[in-house]
What does this fold into?
Amino acid sequence: MADFLRGLLMVLGALTLVALLLLGVAWWRIRRTLRRLGEVCEGLVDETTPGRITLQPDDDPEWDDDDWAAEQIALLTAAGFEPCGTFGVDPMPGLLLAALVHPAESTYAVIYELPAVCRWVELVTCYDDDGMLTVSSSPHLENLDAMPGRERVVDLEADSAGLLELWRAAVRPTGRRPAKAEWFVAEFEQAYAAEMAWRDQRGGPTEEEVRRIAAQMDDPVDDADIAATVRRQAREAHLREAARAAAVDPDDDDESPDEDRPPAPRAPA
It folds into this structure.
């Protein structure tokens, strides 16, 4: 059963720019489904949570529910959102997302689909003080603790139009960081890395987080499974932290912000 929870938490840490953390809840289902279908090659699925991800453009996306995806895109487009693109996520085979942006409102929208598992929509606004608002229809968003300054609003039944109403009621009127289509990929990838760094700095997922996630799963787990999962994730967090420390180059200025892109999101101290 510890193997089950390791898979369940494999991508723990993605709830930043667009709330990918819920993949920690759903990822084990993708692995199990893909293996049943014989679609996973040796080495394709790692049992460790990736410290970074890469968005891969998908110009010919194959949605499991084309009508649902088209409806959400139409609702967002009618509200003034513009397309950023459709992407897969490496190393998360099976995940498909369509990103849109409303530059005037400084807000991104992301439509997600996990094949044969679930689909949901996120609206995300970042603030100049490093705060963030996420409005979501995900059933798993609140299983994991939020980073400091991250606000969440969840409505499981809302479509994109309903989420927009919730967003309007919750978003700050001023102090929003700009959002542009050409910035989306970098913002997304950097935000994931910042969230992972924050979670690793505090030693990985807490016992309470693991219990909340396990409570939503069909398979029964006991205290030994919970404890084994927490220990395993703590070891992985330590290894990722060590790798980050070894990779730091004090003379490397690649991450210095320029005039054409907002500063990269960073983990709170």
About this structure: The first strand starts at residue 54 and ends at 57. The mean pLDDT is 80.
